[in-house]
Amino acid sequence: MGQGMFAAMPSENLRRLEFFRLALLLIDRGNSDLPPRLSEHFDCVLHQARALYADPKSISPEVIPQAVHLANDFHIISGLRDALDGVDRIGDVSPEIAHKVLLSLEPAIASAD
User: Fold this and answer.
1) Which of 21, 28, 60, 89 is a good FRET partner for 98, with 20 to 30 A between their CA atoms?
2) How far is Cα 104 from Cα 90, in angstroms, rounded to an integer?
């Protein structure tokens, strides 16, 4: 990888929820047929983040880093939990919900840089 490739890579803040955001972006753009691994990842991050948000002491080595970031975002970003209200799995996410969640994630990404 040359220097140019590194310069084109997104910032760490953008990358920390990249697969979670990718699932939302695909749905936002009208793709409801996501790869199974991506769907499983989204569901796993969401469930682990909610558990951590409810009880921060529940953290363990099995918790994936993206779930920790999302749980943290639940504390910081007003509206993020509301945007995901009623969503239990990726199948519950409509393009409208995906758009709302992405919009609530964007300010954190922009301001954290």
Assistant:
1) 60
2) 17
Q: What is the DSSP string of 37-85?
A: HHHHHHHHHHHHHHHHHH-GGG--TTS-HHHHHHHHHHHHSTTHHHHTT
What does the mean pLDDT of the chain come to?
Answer: 85
List own/partner pairs for 76-85 with CB under 8 A and 24 or more apart. 76/108, 77/104, 77/105, 77/107, 77/108, 79/104, 80/104, 80/105, 81/53, 84/46
Tell me how far CA of residue 65 lies from CA of 17, 41, 71, in angstroms.
9, 12, 10
CB 109 within 8 A of CB 14: yes
pLDDT in tens, 79-97: 999 999 999 999 999 999 9
pLDDT in tens, 47-67: 999 999 999 999 999 999 999
